[in-house]
Backbone:
């Protein structure tokens, strides 16, 4: 099996693990998994899946669960996701 | 496709169930739990019977991983030595040593 396939599987696996860690109330463990996944993507020159970029914090790297450790609000033409650490991410909607 | 016995040494170990079957340090034998952390030379195992995470050196230890499919795979810890993010790029066919 080639390296890129394994790397993609690892990123997906780490995303699930990071999510489970957030659910279990272990944000630091979640951060470790998210950072590891980013590093794998970087080393293998893969882009991260959309679910990954949308549900992780750019500043503190924690995996975000709306209602748990993230607020999601709709504004004119865009969505604002606010992490518990204060970092805001925006993306447009139709 | 999830982890297979062939890709295990290059794949993500965190999240797998593991037990230590042989080790240079006899106190480590019998540790069972799930992998929660990995460093270049150690694996962090959260034991089933407590919340504590034990860090087990990879070198000199034989691990038995239980794959999600239910298969048991025994691995020489030395083969797992390496930076976690870089392990994927080691194809494991090196004849060195």
Residues:
């Amino acid at each position: 099996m080639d390296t890129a396939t394994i790397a993609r599987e690892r990123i997906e696996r780490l995303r699930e693990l990071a999510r489970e860690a957030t659910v279990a109330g272990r944000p630091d463990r979640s951060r470790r998994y998210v950072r590891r996944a980013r590093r794998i993507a970087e080393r293998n020159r893969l882009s991260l899946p959309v679910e990954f970029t949308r549900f992780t914090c750019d500043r503190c790297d924690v995996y975000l669960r709306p209602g748990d450790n993230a607020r999601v609000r709709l504004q004119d033409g865009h969505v604002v996701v606010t992490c518990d650490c204060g970092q805001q991410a925006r993306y447009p909607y139709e | 496709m999830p982890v297979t016995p062939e890709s295990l040494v290059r794949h993500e170990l965190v999240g797998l169930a593991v037990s230590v079957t042989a080790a240079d340090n006899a106190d480590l034998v019998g540790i069972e739990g799930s992998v929660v952390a990995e460093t270049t030379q150690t694996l962090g195992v959260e034991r089933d019977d407590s919340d504590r995470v034990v860090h087990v050196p990879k070198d000199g230890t034989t691990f038995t991983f239980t794959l999600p499919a239910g298969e048991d795979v025994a691995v020489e810890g030395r083969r797992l030595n390496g930076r976690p993010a870089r392990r994927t790029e080691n194809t494991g066919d090196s004849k060195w040593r």
